[in-house]
Design goal:
By secondary structure, the chain is mostly helical. It is built from 11 helices and no strands. Helix 2 crosses helix 7 and helix 7 packs antiparallel against helix 10. The relative contact order is 0.15.
Length: about 280
């Protein structure tokens, strides 16, 4: 009985946490698309990489290059008609080389002279270091592409940390709005495990069956506003636990749900018989 109760509680919690994480992921992707967070992060990374925060010098020339942004012909950042969410590193390297040489002769020696004329000392030192390590234009292009790729990986790490914070805030807001108290949910499922018994599989989307199963769980407000006290502090702790669980992501919780459902369907192992059965000998 204990094992069955534990499985039912695990199924109910996994289903709830997975559904909340799926809702938060959907909201997060919608916000990222509306506010163009990836494109803005990429542009900010290029401005930092080329030390051009005003978008008036080398970053402007590279970002509006046709290989980087085919529809980006603009003198000011606010005038940009389109912002790409991804830039091929080799295309960035070509655009940077074209912007430095300003359509001059495409020779390795001419490139070295163009690098010496870069006004920004930070970018100049970086380009000089890459130039000394390269033997020709192709190798220099690959080095610049690797430099850009490493810089974008650092920006990607910062973007993911920011997205984790947004995910936590969204899940906390959702937990408060719907009163998804993990502590209360655990208590109720432990006392009434049959609430989660009808959940038979890991849903892949928020269809009607998923919503119906989620509504069967003890979620929602019974009285509002809540009374301040020890019970309210415990309720706040439950909201925080719910918000933290969404950081694992919906695939993690739905995988846990599927494993728990499979364990419930397997059942207990039949007991082995202690009696010795006679062995029939073949007839001669």
């Amino acid at each position: 009985m204990l094992g069955s109760t534990v499985l039912e509680v695990a199924i109910g919690l996994s289903f709830c946490f997975g559904s909340v994480a799926l809702i938060v992921t959907t909201l997060q992707e919608a916000l990222a698309s509306i506010f163009r967070l990836r494109a803005n992060t990429l542009l900010a990374g290029i401005k930092t990489m080329l030390n051009d925060p005003d978008f008036s010098r080398l970053a402007q020339a590279v970002y509006t290059h046709p290989l980087v942004n085919p529809h980006g012909g603009a003198d000011h950042e606010q005038d940009l008609k389109a912002k790409p969410s991804y830039i091929e590193p080799l295309h960035f390297a070509i655009a940077l080389m074209d912007s430095i040489q300003k359509n001059g002769p495409a020779t390795y020696e001419a490139l070295g002279a163009a690098i010496e004329s870069i006004p920004d000392p930070q970018v100049k030192r970086a380009m000089q270091g890459l130039y000394r390590r390269a033997a020709d234009l192709q190798q220099f292009q690959r080095l610049v592409a690797g430099w850009f790729d490493n810089a974008m990986q650092r920006m990607s790490g910062a973007y993911k940390r920011k997205q984790l914070l947004i995910s936590f805030l969204l899940s906390l807001l959702l937990a408060v709005f719907l009163n998804i108290d993990s502590i209360h949910l655990f208590r109720t499922l432990w006392l009434h495990p049959a609430l989660a018994a009808h959940i038979s599989g890991a849903p892949g989307a928020l269809d009607q069956a998923t919503v119906d199963a989620l509504m069967a769980l003890p979620i929602g407000w019974e009285k509002f506003p809540p009374v301040l006290g020890s019970e309210f502090l415990l309720q706040v702790s439950g909201w925080l636990v719910t918000a933290c669980t969404t950081l694992f992501g919906a695939p993690f919780w739905f995988d846990m749900l599927q494993r728990a459902v499979q364990m419930r369907g397997t059942g207990s192992k039949p007991a082995e018989s202690t009696e010795t059965q006679p062995v029939a000998l073949p007839a001669t």
